[in-house]
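Hi R.,

As promised, here are both runs. First protein below:
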Amino acid sequence: MFKDGITEEIQTAYNASLERLQSKDKITVNDLRREIQSVLHLMGDAHTSTYNSYPNDAYLKAIPQKYSQGYDITSINGDTVKVIYENAKPYYCYETEDWINIDLGSLATLDFLGYSEPFTYKWSDGENVIEETYNASDFVSWDEFDEIRNEYYTQSEPKDFVYYDIDEQKSLAILTLTQCVYNQTYIDCVKSMFEEVKEKNIKNVAVDLRGNGGGSSMVGNEFIKYLPIDSYYDGSYDWRWGFLEFHSSPRISNNQYANLLFDGNVYILTDYDSFSAAKDFAMLIQDNRLGKVVGEPPANAVNGYGEVTYFFLPNTGLFVQISTKKWYRIDSTNTDEYVMPDYPCNSNDCFDKLYEVINTEK
């Protein structure tokens, strides 16, 4: 973004933030973080941001009980949740506002947003409203919070980050991927699914990427090895290493698994929480005309930044991540800013819409 120099907008914001910090007698960690975020926010890059030092955070111990009783937070210190999110926008890094996620039970987050004790929470279950006031002493460490949470929720056996189900009646295989982790577990799971798809002559395969926050984009490339194409286009990029810059070649030869090729219908399920590599997976399928997207647009732009580098600020305890790549849409003729679903619907209605589409396209 700044290979040709800092933009005037960012430089002006930086100067203003620096001036505000220099005028203070004392600077807290969150004073500094707010000023950093007010600059980074202007970039419109959801991958570039600072984060609280989570191990040193504390969490409202009343939350597990309230949530288990069906209550949600409706306001804090007189501000509704909607107002809290609206006021927080200038300090968050996002490409679509649906990506903003605020932990309203985090003491560090409350301080970051400018709230101080006592904290007056209003809770509602849709019919009843409860008002309770808490102090910092009502916030506990993550380990203690997790113990309290276990008292109110039965912890079921966690599923792997990737698994699949076969519905023979609908001739549908559903691969659920909660994280884009490219490892042997993923490779083996996808292979097992396509073996069963071939054995049972399944005509439709869907990949559920709802809530997937990203990871490795190689998960999409591995999936495509089961599709009957010799080559395809991947997203091109400019990758900056300091003063060096590398460019990608978007055309990729498909190293097919020839004995397990699938020539049926492919669908990708996405929502506003499908981010980064999950968005790339959806774009890879849509822009190469290999399948259709069902649900909501993923959380970040098709022409955006990523491939983050992480580091830690030792004096403040803040974590930082910064993008090093500029990504470009695979299909340059498509002018949509996001991956727009071929079959749009609410995230909760994805399977209803998918079944409807499958029945229509029989």
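And here is the second one, sequence first, then its structure tokens:
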Amino acid sequence: MAHGTRETEIKLAFPDVKAARQRLRAVGFRVVKRRVLEVNTVYDTPGLALRDAATLLRVRRAGSVGTLTYKGRPDDSKHKSREELEVKVSDPHRMGVILERLGFHAAFVYEKYRTEFRQPGRGGIATIDETPIGAYVELEGSPAWIDRTARRLGFSEKDYINVSYGRLYLDWCRQHGVEPADMVFGDRPKRT
């Protein structure tokens, strides 16, 4: 049986994008992929079987690039680590139609602007994710690299966020007394 790669990551909350960018640059990170809008559509069964199993099926459009992603159930640890299978798709909209024909439905749409950073000569990726609910830095790499980098950025393990943007959004809605919908920017139309 073929297996995908393992994704190991955490998120760190920042007061704003400027603070995140300054902190990353101060410890040697440089932009390797410029800021791009990502539109992510999470698909599930009518009974939300994938969500209940803590797995994910997603179609992402990032600029002109489309990706179909499956994420397995995360391990129970301080880092979010799970199997990740991805394939590029030339037409994300049509991929969504195929998934709907197979019985899945668009359960949640979330948007973020993402900028990708790396430290020259070092492993791991840092991204700044600008979301409608705040600014986050995502660190993806080996657990040792994540811990070392988080410390260099001024964070400790108690600051680690290892839940999805969907979960962060639901928590934000609860805290702000907002009825959950899709996590999209501004006056963009909501799905019906």
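A quick note on the second one: The mean pLDDT is 93. Let me know what you think.

Best,
J.
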